[in-house]
Amino acid sequence: MTDSLALHPLQIPDCLHSVGPGWQPLLMRLHKQLKALASDYRVEDVKEKFGGLRVRVADRFDADGEFDGDWADASSPLIRAAEAMSQTICEFCGAQGQPRSRGDRDGGWIKTVCERCHPIRRPGAIPATFSPEEQCAIADHADELGLSVIQYIRQTAASKATQWQRERDGLHEIAERRGTTVEEMLQRGFLIDDTP
Ligand SMILES: [Zn+2]
After folding, report:
1. Mind listing the pLDDT tens digit for each residue in 120-162?
2. Mean per-residue pLDDT for 18-41?
3. d(CA 108, CA 39)
4. Which whole-number Å values give the CA distances from 137 to 93, 106, 154, in the listed order?
5. Distance 156 CA to ligand 1 centre (A)
6. What domain of life does the native source organism fall in (predicted)?
7. CA of 122 to the centre of ligand 1 (A)
8. How close is the Cα of 183 to the center of ligand 1, in Å?
9. How far is the CA of 87 from the centre of ligand 1 (A)?
10. For residue 118, how far is its CA from the centre of ligand 1 (angstroms)?
11. Residue 2 has pLDDT above 50, yes or no
12. Half-sphere exposure of 7 (CA within 13 A, CB side)
């Protein structure tokens, strides 16, 4: 243990973002329970593994350096209960969930998610380059629009690119009519098309 950690014990609220937002209420409940046992408890790790929450707290020792068995005995069941509970709660949105794998492949991605946040049930998986939160948002919005995620990503990219292209072409047209260039127009701040 470093001195700075001893002075500023890392507790659960410092590690909330190690896992998805759906588990944060569960973690805060555990934090209150642990704090009631030992207000200066220290957490060593908060993470997600195989679709479940994992929390590791530091051992405690009394003034004589004796291992605090009471803390270990009292804190473990609370931690185990929260970890077990996490496998029933969607890590992304907090709704009821269950561990699910990506696609039909075994041994890969396992996350505890609800039906809505499970991107794989839709035709076309969301590329893993998107963060879990982004995947969840994309899946939700695509659902709302009645599109598959692949259609959604295609259309979003296409509309953004064509919009940019239209704006660029429009500016070029204005610049041409004025006998100037887009760069010059932007520099002068002449962006209003006042040509007849
Ligand atoms: Zn969800």
Report:
1. 544 456 777 787 778 778 877 887 888 887 888 889 999 999 9
2. 95
3. 39
4. 10, 25, 15
5. 23
6. Bacteria
7. 14
8. 47
9. 12
10. 7
11. no
12. 3
